[in-house]
Amino acid sequence: MHTSVGHPRPFTARGPHPAGCSHNVRAAPPAWRVHAAKRAAKSPLADPMLRAQDLLVSGEVAEGTITAFNKGGLIVELDGEDLKAREELVLSERQARAAEALARLSEGEVVRGEVVRLEDYGAIVALLDDKCTPMGLQGLVHKKELSWDMVMTVEDVVRLGQVVDVKVIGVDRTRRNVSLSLRALKADPLMETIENQEWRATSEVPAEIVKIVSVLMSTAGISDVRPGRQAEEKSTVAQDLELYLTKVELPGGFALVVRSGRVLQELVVDTSLSRDDMKKALTRVLSRVR
């Protein structure tokens, strides 16, 4: 796990769209199933509009035929009866596509998307399927997930209308939030730094790292935290305070690496926590020492 607090150095990554996906590809709406309540599928209601409203209650599936579509959505025929009997019932194709896409999406998956909005805090990306057709679902690439290097502005890395490959790093189906990352598709420079350093015995632990040790010691499930090796980089790659859970297997615990300025400090943690629980604990620790 690698979590950063702050910003890395300026970086620009502009280029052509990924192969196999042209810009602004749009396809005609496919045949679509209308999400509806199972009980409503057998509803005795005579009024087609009332029956259609009943169909929208629970989110299960009833078969319908699309008779037309417009910018607002789809006009659907249910049980052979035209819903225009009282008024047109327009079911949003976009919402239906988004619901299905959200249900299929999983953390760790690499997907393609088009940058549709730029904000100070990150880039909004509209996800595309394997035919480059919009799924009706958007996700956020937070500013810190754009690059391992420092990002002064979002425009330093991406531009409006650019098609990019991104990694899904979080899916909240309740809030319909999707978190994406560009930098997760590239090697973490901190790992390369760790592997190439000349480590030595710890001389003095920086104050920022002492604070991390203190917070770790107050975390449930952690029994001891002690300094391990130390290294000093020739130049500062980032101004962030970074905390990394290494892959080193230790009896009854884990090895962490903290970067503070040019100093890399190894911490040995004795804990009963699993690796996943340890990652969650480190996220909470960093939020407290910011």
Automatic annotation (TrEMBL):
Q: What SMART domains does UniProt report for this protein, alphabetically?
A: S1 (SM00316)
Chain ranges of the S1 motif domain:
108-183
- Region of interest (Disordered), ranges: 1-24
Judging by the UniProt lineage, the source's domain of life is: Eukaryota
Q: Name one GO molecular function term.
A: nucleic acid binding
SUPFAM superfamilies, sorted: Nucleic acid-binding proteins
Which PANTHER family does the entry link to?
OS03G0844900 PROTEIN
The name on file for this protein is S1 motif domain-containing protein
**Organism whose genome encodes this protein:** Raphidocelis subcapitata
